[in-house]
Amino acid sequence: MRVEINTRYWIPRLAYNAGKHLAVIMSLLRKTLLYETLVQNGGKMVPFAGWLMPIQFDGTSVLESVRHTRRHASLFDVSHMLQCRFSPNSLESLMPVDTKTMRVGAAQYTAILNEQGGIIDDAILTKRESNYTLVSNASRVNAVLALLSDNVSVCENALFALQGTVRLLCGLLSEHQATSLLFMNSLESAEFTITRCGYTGEDGFEISVKPEAAPSMAELLLKDARVKLAGLAARDILRLEAGLCLYGHDVDETVTPIEAGLQWIISKSRKDYPGFDRLSMQMRMGVTKKRLGFTSPEGPLPREGAVITELENGSVVGKITSGTFSPHTNSNISMGYVNADSVEGLKSLANSTSLAVQIRGKQYPISALFKAIPTAALRVPRVTSLPTLLLRQPIRIGLRVKETLSGRELTVGRMEMERGGVRARVWSTTGGEISEREMWGGKWRIADAK
């Protein structure tokens, strides 16, 4: 039996109905306080975690936006993220953080854990005078709020991320305030809160602004010709170049901080956080699944879900969780998890030069780095804090660095650093121990870099 379909009738009708459904869906999505400004500036809005967010902006390609952030500065609207305040009553029952050692104004990257040590969400926790603030992912709002105590209050502020080389906050802070505000620390005023942190691998600030002041604040920040608006696509490339995780892709409730390479967020003085037994065992005995960074010298871009294999025999050993093209290495980069039957087997795989990624039935060689920061060693040296500068270098001991204001040079000796906070010690072979304020407050560069 032959059935003929009147395509001249049905295709336009189906397209019309699809358009109606899309319009309904779009009308249900939330808009940030900066939505009108973003649209007026050419923002291409797309659905993201229940919000309408800019994927990129007219007149600027995604790669141009990435390069601009690295060379100058970009402003990201991240108001879709959950911002809340809560009392410390139930805090330590959720996160492996030692709040007793945190100073008022200090911020810390942390994770909310389930009973198996899996990551319910990752977040930035900041200690205030009488309570705490938490900034976490928009996609996990319901899960996070359900776990916090009843006296939690959701903050409706706008949230901007100013990322790049611009140190002065366009009149918001004095030069002294901007340069003396240490990494992962914050300043709070009546209208806004500024934290020195970010999600791009660059120096920068995240600024939480009262709703009524949000448009004028954005306008003030954009007055600087070096600052341009940027969208989600550029932000994803920037965070992947820096080896930073995206929740729901690189980490989730089935992955522990140890497996994700985030063991530095776990307090050594705590034993009562969720999943303590499993995590302490993993720290002692090792893991058989590990997040790694990869570079791909040839072949198509590895996307999420692509299978990682051994090049020689094709055995499946893992999968890709994030992938993109890196304009700063001019190659494809990605991250993912490799699995093995034993800890030693995992280490052997992680250091192997014979891994491949399977794309459309073909194998393409990839290079793995045991530390999941695929391009950190390839970044151009910048003027920044000494710990941030050193964390980006492939060779740390014996490196000559220079403080740009005083002209002081030193050779780096033994180092002890904690990437998630401000605790760091650096011994110079030429000048003794460097103070924390010198390290984080000074502007350092590689001594022989132009």
From TrEMBL:
Gene Ontology molecular function:
aminomethyltransferase activity; methyltransferase activity; transaminase activity
Descriptive protein name: Aminomethyltransferase
The cross-references to InterPro entries, in alphabetical order and at most eight, read: GcvT, GcvT/YgfZ/DmdA, GcvT/YgfZ_C, GcvT_C, GCVT_N, TrmE/GcvT-like
Family affiliation: Belongs to the GcvT family.
Gene Ontology CC: glycine cleavage complex; mitochondrion
Query: Domain named Aminomethyltransferase C-terminal: which ranges?
Result: 289-367
Describe, as the record does, how this protein assembles with itself and its partners.
Answer: The glycine cleavage system is composed of four proteins: P, T, L and H.
Q: What class of enzyme is it?
A: transferase
One biological process GO term for this chain? glycine catabolic process
Q: Which domain of life is it from?
A: Eukaryota
**SUPFAM superfamilies on file:** Aminomethyltransferase beta-barrel domain (SSF101790), Folate-binding domain (SSF103025)
Provide the catalytic activity annotation.
Answer: N(6)-[(R)-S(8)-aminomethyldihydrolipoyl]-L-lysyl-[protein] + (6S)-5,6,7,8-tetrahydrofolate = N(6)-[(R)-dihydrolipoyl]-L-lysyl-[protein] + (6R)-5,10-methylene-5,6,7,8-tetrahydrofolate + NH4(+)
List its EC numbers: 2.1.2.10
The GCVT N-terminal domain is annotated at 34-268
Q: Could you tell me where this protein is found in the cell?
A: Mitochondrion
PANTHER family referenced in this protein's UniProt entry, alphabetically: AMINOMETHYLTRANSFERASE, AMINOMETHYLTRANSFERASE, MITOCHONDRIAL
Task: Report the protein's function.
Answer: The glycine cleavage system catalyzes the degradation of glycine.
